[in-house]
């Protein structure tokens, strides 16, 4: 009973955070909900979207609601791994100084780390970031630093391909979700963004989110409590396994796509880690919907974000990835029935 | 003595007699058993070949002496033995099938009796003892090629020597034809029944709910709780109607796309809510199984009617 009231209490706070972030963002309810799921499943997120659609604003609003330290780093071609840990400069006396860099600056209270344009950074930086994500720790100043409350958000620029380093499959697999953020579609939303002065000052806008709505230091404990509280029936397990199988072998599941040979489409992916992350996200979604069990709709709600970026196509299809992946995921969802 | 014991008594007696009969005439161990397969015994004319098969079954250890058989060649002025072949039916030569082909060179003026000659065969035993058996002759009738009639002549209008060819007789096919017709009808009925059940009847496609209703009807009737398979039957009907997997959250879209089911919305909602509890809560024996098979059948039937109307 106490557990139930804790779940309900946390849910109320989570929904308030979602509501406040939604009031800052225009027509991004879908992405905000996915971000919320990632936060409560303690998973790192790869954001995807055009320039200037509000990724940073969304992240800052979310970070403010969570409280804790927020850091942001721009990926560039000459960024070195040490730049994450150390900040070097010449002080007033002309002496070189080394201070903690962006990752270390907040110490253990670092809660949100935003790596902008991750594919502009070199693979050395990627590997350091991957360790930071997987182990939530970093070696600097001759000792190991831990960041137990850290969530990493990364943004990938998909417009340019020059001087970029594409994330390898292993790196993409470590991200819990890949969330696409698109500019608002409706004319009304676009009108508001263009003419409503409220949206011109991002700083003031973010101020409107209550600071520390959700206690970031308690999130880890609550997330595991939440995972244990939501049940998954055998029928649903079968559904998830069927979906997984359909992703690995679409032809055998009877999936057909126009203009794509599904027999040769999939080169790999659909890792067990990814599938377990999918169920984690589905449990959070069920909790947000006030249910104590996962239903197929929960899996469907997080399927594209948790499974899409883990599938790797054959090279001839990889360039058309954006166009094919949505159709493939949709066909799998349409094809696989439960119960 | 009752009737049944009389039967028992008489069968006793019969058994005793049988045993005696076997005992009195035991098959002698050292006999050659001869079984002859003769050709037909009539209607032979000059030049015909007669094939006669003789099967010799020898006692253990005996071998047939080939020289005791008639040799190939001219037997007498009207009979040749044109071919003689042996076929051992077992490895030790204990059973031999001999085939004799005779050719007739006798030209009778009228039908008459002839006989293939009998002969005696010998077999040699393990101790060089000799046993014999007689192959009986074979009597048959030979006929002239053409009937001898002084007043008949070739090509005569009134009395030709040659009779017109007999037309081949027709076999009675009424019974086989009836059997074949019945078989064809049964096969067609079976194919149609299969096509109906599996919804492959060309030109008459039943909707998903019609199939589901039929399938549910085939399940046992009663008020017993709905089984997972019965629930799945109905789920598949919704999936097939929508063309994709339908879940509880999709019902708004489903009803919008298929307005015929709009007035059943409450029943459909109840069904999906029940199914969700049933399959996903994980506790399946919570005593909350409100849907019985009868209710599922009723919902399927209602949906079938809407589907037929749409």
From TrEMBL, chain A:
This is ATPase AAA. Residues 41-185 form the AAA+ ATPase domain. InterPro entries: AAA+_ATPase, ATPase_AAA-3, CbbQ/NirQ/NorQ/GpvN, ChlI/MoxR_AAA_lid, ClpA/B, P-loop_NTPase. The lineage of its organism: Bacteria, Pseudomonadati, Pseudomonadota, Gammaproteobacteria, Salinisphaerales. It comes from the Bacteria. One of its GO terms (molecular function) is ATP binding.
TrEMBL record, chain B:
It comes from the Bacteria. The chain crosses the membrane at residues 180-197. The keyword Transmembrane helix applies. Keywords: Membrane, Signal, Transmembrane, Transmembrane helix. Residues 1-29 form the signal peptide. This is MxaA protein. It comes from Salinisphaera orenii MK-B5.
């Amino acid at each position: 009973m106490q557990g139930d009231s804790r779940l309900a209490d946390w849910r109320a706070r989570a929904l308030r955070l979602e509501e406040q972030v939604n009031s800052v963002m225009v027509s991004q309810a879908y992405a905000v909900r996915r971000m919320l799921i990632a936060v409560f499943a303690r998973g790192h997120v790869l954001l995807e979207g055009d320039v200037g659609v509000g990724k940073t604003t969304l992240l800052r609003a979310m970070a403010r609601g969570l409280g804790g330290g927020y850091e942001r780093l721009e990926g560039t071609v000459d960024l070195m791994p040490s730049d994450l840990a150390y900040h070097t400069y010449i002080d007033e006396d002309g002496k070189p100084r080394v201070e903690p860099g962006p990752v270390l600056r907040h110490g253990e209270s670092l809660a949100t780390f935003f790596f902008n344009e991750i594919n502009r950074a070199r693979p050395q930086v990627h590997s350091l970031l991957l360790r930071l994500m997987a182990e939530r720790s970093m070696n600097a100043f001759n000792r190991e630093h831990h960041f137990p409350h850290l969530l990493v958000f990364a943004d990938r620029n998909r417009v340019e391909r020059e001087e970029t380093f594409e994330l390898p499959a292993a790196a993409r697999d470590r991200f819990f979700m890949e969330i696409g953020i698109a500019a608002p579609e409706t004319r009304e939303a676009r009108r508001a963004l263009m003419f409503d002065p409220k949206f011109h000052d991002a700083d003031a806008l973010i101020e409107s989110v209550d600071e520390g709505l959700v206690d970031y230091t308690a999130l880890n404990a609550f997330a595991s409590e939440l995972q244990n509280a939501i049940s998954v029936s055998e029928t649903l397990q079968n559904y998830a396994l069927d979906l997984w199988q359909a992703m690995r072998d679409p032809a055998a599941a009877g999936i057909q796509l126009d203009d794509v040979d599904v027999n040769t489409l999939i080169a790999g992916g659909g890792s067990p880690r990814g599938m377990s992350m999918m169920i984690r996200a589905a449990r959070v979604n069920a909790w947000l919907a006030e249910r104590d069990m996962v239903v197929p709709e929960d899996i469907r709600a997080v399927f594209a974000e948790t499974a899409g970026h883990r599938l790797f196509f054959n090279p001839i299809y990889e360039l058309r990835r954006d166009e094919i992946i949505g159709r493939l995921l949709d066909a799998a969802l349409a094809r696989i029935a439960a119960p | 003595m009752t009737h049944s014991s009389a039967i028992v008594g008489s069968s006793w007696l019969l058994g005793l007699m049988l045993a005696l009969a076997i005992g009195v005439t035991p098959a002698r161990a050292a006999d050659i058993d001869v079984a002859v397969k003769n050709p037909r015994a009539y209607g032979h004319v000059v030049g015909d070949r007669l094939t006669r098969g003789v099967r010799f079954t020898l006692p253990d250890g005996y071998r047939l002496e080939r020289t005791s058989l008639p040799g190939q060649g001219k037997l007498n002025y009207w009979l040749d033995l044109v071919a003689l072949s042996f076929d051992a039916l077992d490895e030790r030569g204990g059973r031999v099938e001999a085939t004799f082909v005779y050719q007739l060179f006798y030209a009778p003026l009228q039908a008459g009796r002839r006989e293939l000659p009998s002969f005696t065969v010998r077999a040699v035993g393990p101790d060089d003892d000799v046993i014999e058996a007689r192959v009986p002759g074979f009597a048959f009738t030979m006929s002239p090629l053409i009937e001898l009639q002084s007043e008949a002549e070739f090509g005569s209008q009134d009395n030709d020597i040659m009779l017109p060819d007999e037309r081949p007789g027709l076999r009675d096919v009424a019974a086989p034809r009836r059997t074949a017709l019945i078989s064809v009808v049964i096969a067609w009925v079976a194919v149609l029944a299969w096509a109906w059940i599996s919804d492959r009847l060309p030109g008459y496609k039943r909707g998903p709910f019609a199939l589901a209703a039929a399938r549910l009807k085939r399940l046992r009737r009663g008020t017993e709780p709905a089984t997972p398979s019965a629930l799945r039957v109905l789920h598949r009907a919704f999936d097939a109607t929508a063309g994709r997997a339908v879940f509880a959250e999709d019902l708004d879209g489903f009803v919008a796309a298929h307005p015929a089911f709009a007035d059943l919305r409450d029943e459909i909602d109840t069904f999906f809510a029940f199914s969700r509890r049933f399959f996903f809560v994980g506790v399946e024996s919570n005593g909350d199984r409100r849907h019985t098979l009868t209710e599922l059948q009723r919902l399927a039937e209602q949906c079938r009617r809407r589907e037929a109307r749409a």
